[in-house]
Amino acid sequence: MSKAEEIIGLFPDYLRPMWTKVLRKMDNLQEIRLRNERPVLLSDGKHEWFLKEDGQVTHCREEAFCMGNRELQAILNHICQYSLYAYEDEIRQGYLTVPGGHRIGLAGQVVLEGKESIRTMKYIGYMNIRISREVLGAADSLLPFLYDRGNFRNVMLISPPGCGKTTLLRDLIRQVSDGNRYGDGRTVGVVDERSELAGAYLGRAQNNLGIRTDVLDACPKSVGMLLLIRSMAPRVIAIDELGEREDIQALQQAALSGTGLMVTVHGEGVEDIKRRIFLQEILKKRLFQRFVVLKKENGSCRIDGIYDEDFQACLR
User: Fold this and answer.
1) Distance of alpha carbon 56 from alpha carbon 246, whole angstroms
2) Is 267 within the bounds of a domain?
3) 275 occurs within a structural domain
4) What gap in Å lies between CA 167 and CA 86, rounded to an integer?
5) Host domain of residue 275
6) Distance between CA atoms of 209 and 215, rounded to whole angstroms?
7) Quick one: 53 and 147 in the same domain?
8) d(CA 151, CA 183)
């Protein structure tokens, strides 16, 4: 099934003619933003369009089609196979993962359990359909800097939001797992807390992460790293969006066990992460031998610099 067919399949039958027209014209579509009584917005990562009711696109807001609550609820019910209860755990976390690895972000009224724990979400009036796109070969230019005579160097990918760090990490996992011209294939353990790397559906990865990769889906990173080390003995651990102190502690334990590391973190560059209090401990202990900085320029993302453990430039 093609990506377009997978996306069209997310919509009830009566809405499919409109979306069939859209997907035929926009094969590079990345996001579909649906909001109750607001214009439907489409994005390819560089440009944004409004959707017209006839399936055409426009830059004119006055011509935009506004999604009503009836359509939103019909889409949600269709995606959940008319059993919202069965998807309650995912809805509570604010997203749904569907066949093909695509993700639907959700927002609405949160129902709390206690003061901080979310029990569920109701009156969902906002949806963000994020179209999964694998870019095989995205990590090609990075590989020569990550191996030393066949030995893998721990790497941290630093990127502001929307610069393709997850796409780059996904392909890096695949190439480390399968093996490449710089090093033999090795077992990779992926803790995919938000189901973005593997795009797992019913526990099965929808994206290609390589033949030696094991995925722990929808599990907190700090818990999952240690679980994988005990159960699957990975030679490399990969996680997306390092951000909690507990993650740092688990990373240190992984490093002590001799496990390699591939992680991403939000940031504007090496100077930015040096100032992060929660990162200073692992920087001081030199857990990473490579820091890769991503940057968006003129609407396109690129590798802006590669640095060693002393933050000396390997590539600029």
Assistant:
1) 47
2) yes
3) yes
4) 29
5) 143-315
6) 9
7) no
8) 7
Q: Are residues 249 and 284 in the same domain?
A: yes
pLDDT at 298 over 80: no
On the question of pLDDT at 299 being above 80, the answer is no
Query: How far apart are the C-alpha atoms of 152 and 59, rounded to whole Å?
Result: 47
Alpha helices, DSSP H only, in the chain?
Answer: 3-8, 16-25, 69-79, 88-93, 165-178, 221-232, 245-256, 270-274, 280-284
Look up residue 298 and give its DSSP letter: T
Distance from C-alpha of 248 to C-alpha of 277, rounded to nearest angstrom: 11
In a domain, 138, yes or no: no
Last residue of a domain, one of 101, 130, 159: 130
- Same structural domain, 116 and 195: no
pLDDT in tens, 167-205: 999 999 999 999 999 999 999 999 998 888 998 887 888
Q: Count structural domains, the chain.
A: 2
Distance, in Å, from the CA atom of 134 to the CA atom of 207, rounded to the nearest integer, reads 7
Q: How confident is the model at residue 9 (pLDDT cuts 50, 70, 90)?
A: very high
CATH code of the domain in which 282 resides: 3.40.50.300
What is the sign, positive or negative, of the torsion defined by CA atoms of 191, 8, 133, 64?
Answer: negative
For 3, 195, 204, 211, the CA distances from 101, given in Å and listed in that order, are 10, 8, 10, 18
Q: How many helices (H) and strands (E) does the chain have?
A: 9, 19
- Paired strand residues for 291: 156, 307
Pick the more confident residue, 209 or 299.
209
Question: Do 75 and 185 reside in the same domain of the chain?
Answer: no
Question: In this structure, is residue 135 part of a structural domain?
Answer: no
DSSP designation for 185: -
**Final residue before a domain boundary, out of 66, 98, 130:** 130
Task: Give the global pTM.
Answer: 0.83
Q: State the CATH number of the domain containing residue 53.
A: 3.30.450
What is the pLDDT confidence band of residue 67, given thresholds at 50, 70 and 90?
very high
Question: Residues, the chain, total?
Answer: 316
